């Protein structure tokens, strides 16, 4: 059923990620903007990691795990559906390699997010920062390789605009996240933690839209009464083009010889030549031609001479 398809993976992932962020931010607001022990001197705006290091640590861990698992399932589903032909198939080995590398970087990014949620910034600050770098870098490089694959797919399948749209969405994510991450890192290490905290929340929110961009990739594989999977539609178009825009016609005859079955036999000579649609016609195993009127001869007693 279409509503249980792989397109649900990015929806679940994005919903969990956004719900976790909103829950943590609302909680921090509701309890009066507390200053956590892990916060820097003069810092008044909490990082996501600060909020997730204490009472909301179970929510942080659960949100990180669910988000990454379903996002990785979206990556793998896209590869599988493209391989099985429900999505526009890869046209070169390079495209397949780019897709596999993107999946590997996504898994690395997932590991980084899960580990940073467990090794909190209060008890394990250095490990936490290292896993944060792995999380951001893993998914950023994954987006680069996926973007390269879609750029090549869009060139080959020009009639499918959704491939180019997905390419531009992912390219926008790469550029925007790079700029935001640079600002976040620079302000973190130059002694302006409040600005860095704001940009960390923004980076996390932008990541939500990147996760949702996989809807553009997976929805074309859905089959409904009004929609055919992208790969099937492409196959039908190629077959139609191969036959010159027409469906292949039925054979003129049902036998194996085709329309040239009787090309050496004139229409008026069919019975005379003993040929009819590929079958040799005979007068049967009966009597010689001069005794075809055997019934009348038997009445007169003539037929007994030949029995």
Automatic annotation (TrEMBL):
Basic residues composition bias: residue spans: 297-307
Every CWH43-like N-terminal domain range: 6-219
Subcellular location: Endomembrane system
Record's keyword annotation contains Lipid metabolism: no
One Gene Ontology cellular component: endomembrane system
Annotated stretches, region: Disordered: 238-307
Membrane topology according to the record: Multi-pass membrane protein
Regions that span the bilayer: 7-28, 59-76, 97-119, 131-150, 162-186, 198-219
Top-rank taxon, per record: Eukaryota
Coiled coil: none
Predominant localisation class: membrane
Keyword field: Membrane, Transmembrane, Transmembrane helix
Compositionally biased intervals (Polar residues): 253-263
Pfam families: Frag1
Protein name, entry field: CWH43-like N-terminal domain-containing protein
Organism: Exophiala sideris
Lineage of origin: Eukaryota, Fungi, Dikarya, Ascomycota, Pezizomycotina
